[in-house]
Design brief:
Layout lengths: L3 H7 L5 E2 L3 H6 L4 E6 L11 H12 L3 E6 L21 H15 L12 E4 L1 H4 L4 H7 L6 H6 L1 H4 L8 H4 L1 H16 L3 E5 L3 H15 L4 E5 L12 E2 L2 E2 L9 H9 L3 H11 L4 H13 L5 H15 L1 H15 L18 E5 L9 H8 L5 H9 L3 E3 L2 E2 L19 E7 L3 E8 L1
Helix pairs in contact: 10-11, 12-15, 12-16, 13-14, 13-15, 15-16
The structure holds one RNA strand.
RNA sequence: GGUGGGGUGACCGAGUGGCUAAUGGUAGCAGACUGUAAAUCUGCCGGGCUAACGCCCUACGUAGGUUCGAAUCCUACCCCCACCA
């Protein structure tokens, strides 16, 4: 538990590592990097593993570099992808790179002896000339070597362009560049990055005659076999604008029992004894889900801050707490309840439920709303809606005259406050 | 460039002239059970109108055509895959 590697191993971060890494870490602080894709302007929970990996690294006195792929984003990594990815505009990539950089700063400290560094490979990749690249980099790799890589193999069926085929060389170039300019000796990443990382190690060895290292994290899948990081409403993002702290909290709270322990180890900094205690408590009373609560609270606080986490907890308790029945009273003052505003003039007079549900976004069409009601899946102010013809009367509305609202719910979990603007 | 195979709903994958909004599976949504879990069972699952029976629109790579009628036949084009050059 005293050094980086054994900590990472104990917490389930290590899928694979190059053999010499342990010895190298014995000898003193190292500089390491992880690359992040700028495919969107926010990271999602899937990127938490590498982010936490870097954070642990820093906690053990090593220096982390977060590399945003503003240059590689132009090309697209075939690893783990089934299809060619669309090309993004430079402006888009740069915007995304900025957003991602901001989020990473939550996990890393940019002060002190081993202050974290942010780099964008656009700075060195975009100015590169093809002839120089082929001479200095391409020379070191045989086609046979490249063809053996998993990322290429798995795409031979569906097709891979020369562009994506070249990706591993560009990533190798990154590693070599960071080695040369910043003394970076270790690259970490998802297990799908193994091939790219070893290509980088190879390049450093050939051009510098030095030994670099690699470590890859396991691919996180859920116990049900679905992709980690999805919820009812799609991807779970770290950006509070895309995924509200409440929904973020809910995502973690709804973790499958079988995944909780692993998630606590991967996504929190809690000590292993603390985690074991929580798991023991959970085994004693699974229905209370103490481990889930701890997990959700911790991760939300880390990503959105203490205050937002508290609010998410309060909201969740108000909505799901032991309000045994269908009382609507505790729903009024809920802080961070998802909200939607609709101008009254956009709704027919008399407020037919069907139209209201469509306006709220809970139903995707009138037909959908109708079907939902017939399946008893919609609730108004805590009561099931039992008629598709229901007209919502004024007495069902709450709140001040200028912002009357009603509480809609779809299923067990989707609450929404619909505010009617005059 | 040649030869062969192929493009079906979110995905996989049946379907070769009317019974097809299109079998089945997955994913998704809702309901029951429970613990805001898993598993299981049930219903829904292109859009609009309807209390409902039902009606209408859009859809099987794209554009035309044949036919009373086409995802299914014909023509051209686009794209993908395999092998050959």
């Amino acid at each position: 538990m005293s050094d980086l590697l054994s900590t990472l191993e104990a917490r389930g971060f290590v899928q694979d590592a190059t053999p010499g890494l342990a010895e190298r870490l014995q000898q003193g602080p190292i500089t390491a990097y992880v690359g992040f894709d700028p495919t969107a302007d926010s990271l999602h929970v899937g990127s938490l593993v590498p982010a936490m990996g870097l954070a642990w690294l820093q906690r053990f006195g090593h220096t982390p570099i977060a590399l945003v792929g503003g240059g590689t984003g132009m090309v697209g990594d075939p690893s783990g992808k089934r299809e060619e990815r669309p090309v993004m505009s430079l402006e888009q990539i740069d915007r995304n790179a900025q957003g991602i950089g901001r989020q990473l700063s939550r996990f890393l400290s940019f002060e002190g002896d081993n202050a974290a560094r942010m780099r964008n490979n656009a700075d060195w990749l975009r100015g590169i000339h093809l002839m120089d690249f082929l001479r200095d980099i391409g020379k070191h790799f045989s086609i046979g070597y490249m063809l053996q890589k998993d990322s290429v193999q798995s795409r031979m069926e569906t097709g891979i362009s020369y562009t994506e085929f070249s990706y591993m060389l560009i990533q190798a170039y990154d590693f070599w560049h960071l080695y040369r300019t910043e003394g970076c000796e270790l690259q970490m990443g998802g297990s799908d990055q193994w091939g790219n990382i070893t290509a980088g190690i190879e390049l450093v060895r050939r051009r510098q005659g030095a030994q670099a290292h690699g470590l890859v994290f396991p691919l996180i899948t859920t116990a049900t076999g679905t992709k980690f990081g999805k919820s009812e409403s799609g991807n779970v993002w770290l950006d509070g604008e895309r995924t509200s702290p409440y929904h973020f909290y809910q995502f973690w709270l709804n973790t499958d029992d079988r995944d909780v322990e692993r998630s606590l180890k991967l996504f929190t900094f809690l000590r292993l004894e603390r985690i074991e205690a929580a798991m023991a408590e959970h085994r004693g009373n699974p229905g209370r889900r103490p481990a889930h609560r701890l997990l959700a609270r911790e991760v939300t606080a880390m990503v959105h801050g203490e205050q937002a986490a508290d609010e998410a907890v309060r909201t969740s308790e108000a909505l799901f707490g032991r309000t045994t029945g269908d009382q609507s009273s505790p729903l009024d003052g809920v802080p961070d309840m998802p909200e939607r505003r609709v101008s009254r003039s956009q709704l027919p007079a008399g407020l037919p439920v069907i139209d209201v549900l469509v306006a709220s976004g809970l139903a995707s069409s009138k037909a959908d709303a109708r079907r939902g009601i017939q399946g008893r899946g919609f609730y108004l102010n805590g009561e099931p809606i039992d008629s598709v013809e229901l007209q919502i009367g004024e007495d069902a509305l709450q709140g001040p005259p200028e912002a009357r609202f009603l509480i809609l719910r779809k299923g067990k979990k989707n609450y929404l406050r619909l505010v009617l603007e005059p």
